[in-house]
């Protein structure tokens, strides 16, 4: 790969994106309904609601951290590749020592 070439970014299809959003929505709604229909004291239902909220926000944070680490690794890899290409371009194997 040359420095002037940019790698093709992988993009999810609209169907995959829609399925992920729909799945998330169904899971949140089903859990919310389950908590409200639960035969337990209000404080127990409130605790479960807060626990689900914390779990969802933690999952989003974890996904972002993993994505950021992967993107940082790609940048470092591209910088290393550019340095290697510069060294190879400057090297003349027929140069006398």
Automatic annotation (TrEMBL):
Keywords associated with the record: Membrane, Transmembrane, Transmembrane helix
Parts forming coiled coils: none
Top-level taxon of origin: Bacteria
Keyword Transmembrane helix included in the entry's annotation: yes
InterPro entries cross-referenced by the UniProt entry: YiaA-like (IPR038972), YiaAB (IPR008024)
Domain YiaAB two helix, chain residue ranges per copy: 16-68
Keyword Transmembrane helix among record annotations: yes
Residues that span the membrane, as ranges: 12-36, 42-63
Protein name: YiaAB two helix domain-containing protein
The organism's taxonomic lineage, starting at the top: Bacteria, Bacillati, Actinomycetota, Actinomycetes, Kitasatosporales
């Amino acid at each position: 790969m040359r420095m002037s070439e940019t790698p093709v970014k992988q993009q999810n299809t609209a169907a995959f994106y829609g399925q992920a959003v729909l799945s998330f929505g169904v899971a949140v709604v089903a859990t919310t309904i389950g908590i409200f229909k639960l035969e337990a004291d209000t404080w127990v239902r409130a605790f479960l609601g807060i626990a689900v909220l914390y779990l969802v926000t933690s999952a989003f944070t974890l996904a972002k951290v993993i994505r950021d680490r992967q993107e940082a690794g790609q940048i470092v890899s591209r910088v290393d590749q550019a340095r290697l290409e510069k060294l190879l371009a400057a090297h003349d194997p027929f140069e006398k020592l």
